[in-house]
């Protein structure tokens, strides 16, 4: 944890600033790429008793003025300080961040070896990074003007709705909220009053007060809890970390809702983390139907103002339930009652740039520190979480069946060596699809690759469309007639002739969702084809519109990537087709097999979630692959048991801790040389250093990448080695080199 021992001294600012070292000194986390805090002097005459950690300050740093965070007050001056600059401006009159969030961010900076100032910038809304006072929350309200109060209301007898709205406004001193007006009157009615000068929109400061648990009403769903659900609810209502391991469709969300109801009745808040923005509309809808208290969301699709308003409501206690994606783990709660991480295995909980934190792991830490229950839910728990549960660090709670008479789907293997696929689908697969569609059901076709095809090749000279910035091939997006790199985003027009030999023998190889959609359109012309991937859901409301179309239940074929695999409930889907997961069996990434098993189980779990029976068709060139027999015959837990044996044999997580240091440069030898010099002389017991070696994809976005792995059985020794490494790298010139450190990496090692 950063202390006053690693506070840097400041060089004297230009203009002959005072060298006074007297007065009160505070530690400030400044958003610069240096892993230390900085000492600043409190301005003369400022009441020190009102200065607290968590307040923002404007400080001079070199030639810049930056917004920093006070982390400690009245500290001794650094021993080597020549000049201690004064704070330029104190932006807040009270702490913006509470002590528990300050401590959490400080822990992150220490554990992930990240600059503390940049860690604070990651943890707060963009609004708080600006050098300005905290904005006052306001609500837009329609108010009656003086003219509206004095006018003869009878003059509006020919416009009865305007007359009614004006009557309501006259007796509402603070006006009516936008939602209240919209509930009874159209925009044309309110606009009519405004145009007459009888009303106007105004912004009125919003009073944020904690929600009142006495006003809670609950709309219970018509279902009977299973014995396993009841036992899970009782156990998970107690402090501690609980792994809720429930098969797909087993009612994990109902367990969440019951647990949340319990904490709401005590006046406490619930924080629910979900992996994808696309999951939030369905989840929010169910939570809002269930509870009368305020539910707010936090995700990247919101504006800065929307995010900050909801952040304030969570901090000040007016929001009862907060549903958000990864960064929501840093939201302050006035009275936390429970932390829930849905689909805890999902890779999107790990930040892969900047502060490379795991929101799931931080939820566990935050729950331990605040003494509230933490529930990690999944049908396919991560190896790390299940290992912690089997070793009793977490409590393991099981949901082994679906509610009532609903059965898990039947799983079938289609051998593509015996039944070649056309357009991605084998003949037995298409036959079964027709049968399910004719019965009035829906079919989900899963391919975890967007675009038309991953390769565009010339039959004449074997040329392939390659990204100039990455060691990757360009993906053909035929509808847009573009070649796109899915790694760096670069794109080119689709060529009509080979750029190498000028022949017109270019053919697409491989399957993406767009190509499968095209094939299905010709083979099933009488059924709608609904494609769900990142290309079709770029618009803000696109996913909600597609989901509404799906939930209508009319016979249709859904084609999509993992956006369709994560926790969705599509009642009409009775058949799931998995086009191709074979690549996951032979990846260099040690996590690939685990992720493939999770995808197969999660996607298959979309089938037969109501009373109708479900089927999963798995197409593969490797029908004898051991994973299939483990998952189909024995289930996901048996798969994990065998996976643990492999991980233990090869000294991989969860049996060994790992960190990856990565360097990038325009020249390949520069990155490798930098890592080699940074690791010289590091010899810590029980720490192995592997590399440096080129990364699996050596060139990306124009940079050549190299990495070195640190592994150990003990976290303490691992972090000792990482501290040495970062110190040595700081001593070297980083000209032309970008360095990152990933503690507990989840991929690409």
Automatic annotation (TrEMBL):
It catalyses: ATP + H2O = ADP + phosphate + H(+); Couples ATP hydrolysis with the unwinding of duplex DNA by translocating in the 3'-5' direction. Signal peptide: none annotated. Initiates the restart of stalled replication forks, which reloads the replicative helicase on sites other than the origin of replication. Recognizes and binds to abandoned replication forks and remodels them to uncover a helicase loading site. Promotes assembly of the primosome at these replication forks. Residues 233-399 form the Helicase ATP-binding domain. One of its GO terms (cellular component) is primosome complex. It comes from the Bacteria. Binds 2 zinc ions per subunit. Residues 431-644 form the Helicase C-terminal domain. Zn(2+) 2 binds at residues 467, 470, 485, 488. Zn(2+) 1 binds at residues 458, 461, 498, 501. This is Replication restart protein PriA. InterPro entries: DEAD/DEAH_box_helicase_dom (IPR011545), Helicase_ATP-bd (IPR014001), Helicase_C-like (IPR001650), P-loop_NTPase (IPR027417), PriA (IPR005259), PriA_3primeBD (IPR041222), PriA_3primeBD_sf (IPR042115), PriA_C (IPR041236). PANTHER family: PRIMOSOMAL PROTEIN N. Belongs to the helicase family. PriA subfamily. Its EC number is 5.6.2.4. GO terms for biological process: DNA recombination; DNA replication initiation; DNA replication, synthesis of primer; double-strand break repair. The gene is priA. Keywords: ATP-binding, DNA replication, DNA-binding, Helicase, Hydrolase, Isomerase, Metal-binding, Nucleotide-binding, Primosome, Zinc.
